[in-house]
Amino acid sequence: MPKKVDHEQRRRQIAEAVWRIASGRGLEEVTLRQVAAEAGVSTRLVQYYFGSRDALLLGALELLSLDQKQRVEERIPQDASPRVLLREILIGLLPLDEHQRMTLLVQLAYFIRALNDEALAAAFLDPEDESLENLLVEIMTAARAQGQIADGLDLAREADTLLAVSTGVGPDILVGLKTGDQVIAMIDYHLDRIFVSSE
Fold this sequence. Notes:
Layout: H1 7-25, H2 32-39, H3 43-50, H4 53-75, H5 82-92, H6 98-114, H7 118-124, H8 131-145, H9 155-168, H10 170-175, H11 180-194
Helix pairs in contact: 1-2, 1-4, 1-6, 2-3, 3-4, 4-5, 5-8, 5-11, 6-7, 8-9, 9-11
């Protein structure tokens, strides 16, 4: 009896090959042939699941975003307070382990390519990319209703600031300009400023 193929797992296997190549050698090295060799499959199979090289790049980026979201969600304890929830989301974006380090390197490779690639630039400008900012605002709005947020704060600006710290300082961790503990302390500093009391 023929073995049943898990198509989602096969797509992920190919996407992971893209991530490894992009994080180690750069996005220019991502070709259908190189990805097939890295994934241990045929070039025809890569084309079957993704079609063109451009579709492969976009598909691998989408799967990377979903992977990162799932990993962040796994960090969050059940019944977490708004402050703990925000903290875990922000720390989950930092390159503190090998997988997150690889994730950031891939994102940087895509960002550089997007400067001269309209299709990739459009993926970065997708309104859905604002969902993380919106999530932070929703969490802080709920905390404000519970009297946990300091008065007079613009929550959208606070969400921007928190994300700027978490995502903007990631490269500093990669090159050793800052440690993970230093960046976590920065996150805690901003959360202490936003929340009336720390936990």
